[in-house]
């Protein structure tokens, strides 16, 4: 049995690390419905300069190929993909079953670590590469050399589902939007060369334009870093460049993975209490599995998980330069010495060294780009920690996937749950204008140490992978890319302040659609009035671009409850009995942990 999920690299890793614990994959963000904003107020949008979307991780499928070049299919007739990650979960479990039983009986590692390493490696067969980064099984990476308007309808719908670009299409038209498809497990050097070709040989000739606007999202930020280093002669071609939650200095998740600092390898509390509930939610299953984990001695369990991590790196990370581009600078020397020191990896090492030099030069290159006349902008999510696999997951400020210092190009952040010191003043490294009060209202961010203090916007408490469901962030991104009147964070502070709060609108929009399509003739006047009141409040909140989280959540919940009360929506809340059962298991889990920690 193979399990296929479209998730970020962090959640893919989570899936792998949890495979020996539970044959259930990580939760995904709900797809929701398309977000189309009212963008009619500006009459002079730039509708002539084409927009190129350089997407993020997992937003372009890749396909394994047969020897004759046709796409491989599984027993069910579905295409076998390299991304979304194709993982042989059952193969891993079967490989580890006998060593697991032997280890339980002997209370020692009876080959379990090696079985987990081999199982993880074999399970990731779809992304196996040789020491020079070549796929062992050929992979097709779709990149359509045409605008969105010419894509097949099913493919267009897929891309719109990934990134909700409908609002942008309303402004510039589908003829002026190009989706640069690349391989999330590819070669950052090669993908940069492809983008160069895409601009010169596809977009500019097809549109007749003299410049392009680039939007680099998440992992796509690494391609942006490398492009500025490799093709400075192209600076004049870029009219505007927008980075959206970019991994400019990588992600601590990958740094900890490459240096064996994944939290469950050494943190007993994380392993036995926090990891599975963070993955599966506060559910009975999570706490039951936590209890089951105690069957093995802690050192055996952590050694086995270490084997799993090694297998993941050996299978698809070690020879994948775009994943190496996610290794933060502070981690690189240690990770390089561990994984790339052997002569057989010389080519990979050379490419990654080149990229790391491009990152080191990024600030200089960015300012040269700006001096050339290009306007550059950034959108950052912050206010939470990192995914719990990270060593400092509850300390480092981030959006769960990318640490905030990376996404903000060097801004200073207080640790999670803290503020900057009372006597802290803005460093002023890149903006010392006394009229600019950049420090966040909650005193957790100093943007002046980041490269773009006057053109970076911040969304607090916004998850990385759920940003496509934040209507305000999308609307703002569309306008930044197309409205030349937006020059910096002071251009429209009454609509788009430098600091805002995150919100997700996909569920509320689904509720609104349910109400719009409902047969109201079957409802009483009282029921109609109840729901309409909630609908009006949600629409009022949706009309506001400055988000107040408490008001938004209250309005969304009021509408949900109203729809349930009139029978238009099923109540999926856990019952009191289910809540009690979960609470009991949580307490039992804590008791078991106390006993084992005391005894062992």
Brief summary of the model shown:
The chain is α/β, with parallel strands linked by helices and 600 residues long.
Keywords:
600 residues; alpha/beta; seven-stranded parallel β-sheet; three-stranded antiparallel β-sheet; disordered N terminus
The fraction of residues in strands falls at 5-15%
User: Spans with pLDDT under 50 lasting ≥5 residues?
Assistant: 1-39
Mean pLDDT, to the nearest integer, reads 90
Give the number of DSSP strands. 14
Query: How far apart, in Å, are the first and last alpha carbons?
Result: 37 Å
Q: Helix coverage percent of residues?
A: 40-55%
Oligomer: single chain
The main sheet comes to:
7 strands, parallel
Gross morphology is globular
List the total number of helices: 21
List the helices and strands and how they pair.
Layout: E1 3-5, H1 9-17, E2 51-54, E3 62-64, E4 81-83, E5 85-87, H2 89-106, H3 112-123, E6 139-140, H4 153-163, H5 166-172, E7 177-180, H6 188-207, E8 212-217, H7 220-230, E9 238-244, H8 252-258, H9 268-280, H10 284-293, H11 298-317, H12 321-324, H13 329-339, H14 346-360, H15 362-371, E10 375-382, H16 404-407, E11 412-413, E12 445-446, E13 456-460, H17 471-482, E14 499-501, H18 506-517, H19 525-542, H20 549-565, H21 576-599
Parallel strand pairs: 2-7, 2-8, 8-9, 9-10, 10-13, 13-14
Antiparallel strand pairs: 1-5, 3-4, 3-6, 11-12
């Amino acid at each position: 049995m193979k399990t296929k999920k479209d998730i970020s690299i962090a959640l893919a890793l989570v899936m792998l690390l949890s495979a020996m614990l539970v044959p259930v994959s990580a939760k995904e963000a709900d797809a929701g419905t398309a977000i189309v904003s009212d963008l009619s107020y500006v009459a002079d949008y730039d509708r002539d300069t084409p927009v190129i979307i350089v997407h993020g991780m997992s937003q372009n499928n890749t396909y394994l190929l047969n020897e004759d070049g046709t796409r491989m299919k599984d027993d069910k007739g579905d295409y076998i993909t390299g991304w979304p990650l194709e993982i042989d979960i059952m193969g891993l479990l079967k490989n580890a079953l006998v060593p697991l039983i032997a280890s339980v009986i002997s209370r020692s590692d009876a080959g379990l670590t090696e079985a987990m390493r081999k199982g993880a490696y074999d399970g990731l067969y779809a992304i196996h590469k040789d020491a020079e980064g070549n796929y062992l099984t050929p992979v097709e990476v779709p990149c359509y050399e045409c605008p969105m308007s010419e894509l097949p309808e099913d493919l267009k719908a897929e891309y719109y589902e990934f990134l909700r670009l409908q609002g942008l299409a309303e402004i510039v038209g589908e003829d002026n939007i190009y989706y640069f498809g690349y391989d999330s497990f590819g070669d950052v050097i090669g993908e940069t060369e492809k983008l160069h070709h895409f601009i010169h040989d596809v977009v500019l000739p097809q549109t007749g334009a003299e410049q392009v606007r680039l939007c680099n999202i998440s992992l796509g930020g690494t391609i942006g870093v490398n492009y500025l280093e490799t093709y400075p002669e192209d600076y004049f071609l870029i009219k505007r460049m927008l980075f959206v939650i970019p991994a400019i200095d990588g992600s601590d998740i990958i740094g900890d993975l490459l240096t064996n600092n994944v939290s469950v390898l050494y943190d007993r509390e994380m392993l036995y209490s926090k990891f599975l509930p963070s993955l599966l939610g506060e559910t009975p299953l999570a706490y039951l599995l936590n209890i089951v984990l105690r069957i093995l001695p802690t050192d055996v369990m952590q050694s086995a998980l270490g084997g799993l991590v090694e297998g993941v790196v050996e299978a698809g990370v070690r020879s994948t330069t775009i994943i190496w581009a996610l290794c933060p600078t502070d981690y690189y020397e240690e990770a390089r010495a561990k994984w790339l020191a052997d002569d057989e990896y010389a080519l990979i090492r050379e490419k990654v060294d080149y990229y790391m030099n491009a990152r080191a030069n990024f600030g200089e290159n960015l300012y040269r780009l700006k001096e050339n006349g290009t306007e550059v902008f950034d959108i950052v999510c912050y206010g939470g920690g990192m995914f719990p696999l990270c060593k400092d997951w509850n300390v480092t400020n981030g959006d769960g996937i990318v640490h905030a210092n990376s996404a903000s190009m060097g801004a200073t952040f207080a640790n999670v749950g803290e503020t900057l010191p009372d006597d802290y003043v803005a460093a002023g490294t890149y903006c010392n204008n006394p009229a600019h009060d950049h420090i966040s209202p909650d005193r957790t961010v100093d943007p002046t140490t980041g490269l773009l203090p006057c053109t970076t916007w911040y969304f607090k408490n916004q998850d990385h992978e759920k940003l496509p469901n934040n209507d305000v962030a999308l609307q703002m991104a569309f306008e930044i890319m197309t409205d030349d009147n937006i020059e910096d964070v002071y251009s429209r502070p009454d609509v788009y302040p430098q600091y805002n709060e995150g919100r997700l609108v996909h569920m509320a929009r689904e509720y609104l659609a349910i109400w719009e399509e409902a047969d109201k003739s079957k409802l009483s006047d009282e029921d109609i009035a109840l729901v309409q009141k909630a609908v009006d409040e949600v629409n009022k909140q949706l009309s506001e671009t400055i988000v107040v989280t408490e008001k938004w959540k209250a309005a969304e919940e009021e509408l949900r409850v109203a729809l349930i009360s009139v029978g238009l929506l099923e109540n999926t809340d856990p019952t009191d009995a289910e809540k009690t059962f979960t609470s009991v298991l949580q307490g039992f889990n804590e008791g078991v942990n106390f006993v084992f920690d005391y005894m062992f």
